[in-house]
Design brief:
3 domains, about 20% strand, Beta-Lactamase, 4-stranded antiparallel β-sheet, Arc Repressor Mutant, subunit A, 5-stranded antiparallel β-sheet
């Protein structure tokens, strides 16, 4: 390896370490997300980055955090008009967590270029591709991190995928912790007091797992000595395998932000009665997190909450139940949302004959023969508890 290559690797390592620190600082101050996302977009060589959610069942969605790189008028237009006809929304829901996927991984790229979504929304902005990582899935929604590519960048390449893979676990952890740690503003002087108002159990520990501080919910959880307990002042999981993972996460977190990587994104904790919790470990070694921790002895924060068993989303259930291909599922959902064959062909950017072929396969596999029956079929898979 040449001197120039060594220097480039050193610069990338330093930049990556700093960027990961910025990502974790967003857990305490969400106003940092726009600037952090702008740095991420530059690091992975993209145009604009955002953390958002999609609902594959209803065709809805919204943005959690964005860097402001997309014109607000186009952003609003997307959610008002184009969110339901984005051809990659449904197949993206089936992507593996933390694995970067590009447009061509989800739909044939030539087909994508003929869709209304590309012709009327992406192309006018000069956008040619989009790389995304699934952060979390629930019953109907999936949270995503994504980066647009402008025509000057070209299509998503291996280098962009590599860099997104490096950041993906840290972004996912930060988003999951932010979901649990729902404090809008946490001033350092008031940090400990703020924690007592949270339902999630929160512990500050050192590299050896010694409890430096715990909020009220944390004290209650260890007092039950089931899922977690305090042994000689150390935070210990009730089940041996879970405890080994927890202790390893404490040691790794003490060495810095970058070191923790994808280890222990969501550590499962199982109580003696089968009750399940999830723990997230956040390093407290730099930035705003270091200033906010209640003691300099603390090197990690541990967020613990009950685990909910999630059912698959309706589109995923429908596809599995009737053995539909991704193309057939897209046509089925478009028929329900958009209407007839000509309209679906225009929205998806495919020939009407292709729509009819897929529709015929859907009819055969579902045992129906009318579009009205397909609407009833999809409605029957809707979760009656969801508004």
């Amino acid at each position: 390896m040449s001197v120039q290559d060594n220097e480039a690797d050193r610069r990338e390592t330093e930049l990556l370490s700093s960027l990961i620190g910025d990502i974790y600082d967003t857990t305490l101050d969400r106003s940092r997300w726009p600037a952090t996302l702008k740095k991420i977009a530059a690091f992975v060589r993209g145009e604009s980055a955002a953390v958002f959610w999609d609902d594959a069942a209803s065709g809805g969605g919204d943005i959690y955090f964005e860097d402001g790189g997309i014109d607000p008028a186009y952003r609003d237009l997307y959610f008002e008009k184009f969110v339901k006809c984005n051809p990659i929304t449904t197949p993206r829901f089936f992507a593996q967590t933390e694995v970067p996927v590009a447009t061509a991984d989800l739909v044939p790229y030539d087909e994508f270029l003929t869709t209304r979504f590309y012709r009327e929304w992406a192309q006018p902005q000069g956008l040619v591709d989009f790389a995304s990582i699934t952060l979390e899935k629930s019953v109907t929604k999936s949270a995503m991190f994504g980066v647009f590519r402008h025509q000057r960048h070209g299509l998503v390449d291996d280098e962009m995928r590599r860099r997104m893979l490096l950041l993906g676990p840290h972004i996912r952890r930060a988003v999951l912790i932010a979901k649990v740690f729902n404090v809008k503003e946490a001033e350092a002087a008031m940090f400990s007091q703020s924690l007592d108002g949270l339902r999630a159990a929160i512990f500050f520990v050192d590299a050896n797992g010694r409890i430096v501080h715990a909020n009220a919910a944390g004290h209650f959880l260890v007092s039950e000595a089931d899922v977690l307990r305090a042994a000689a002042g150390k935070l210990v999981a009730g089940e041996a395998e879970s405890d080994a993972g927890l202790q390893d996460a404490f040691l790794v977190a003490a060495t810095g932000d970058a070191a923790i990587g994808g280890t222990g994104i969501a550590l499962p904790l199982i109580g003696k009665k089968g009750e399940r919790h999830v723990a997230h470990v956040l390093p407290l070694t730099s930035g705003a997190r270091q200033r906010a921790r209640p003691s300099h002895a603390a090197s990690a924060a541990v967020f613990v909450h009950k685990s909910a068993v999630e059912a698959p989303s309706p589109p995923e259930v429908i596809a599995t139940a009737y053995k539909l291909t991704m193309a057939e599922l897209r046509v089925l959902l478009a028929i329900v949302d958009v209407g007839g064959v000509p309209e679906v062909a225009e929205v998806l950017g495919i020939a009407a004959t292709t729509v009819r072929t897929h529709l015929g396969n859907v009819f055969a596999k579902t045992g129906t023969n009318r579009q009205a029956d397909l609407v009833k079929l999809v409605a029957g898979f809707a979760n009656p508890l969801m508004k």
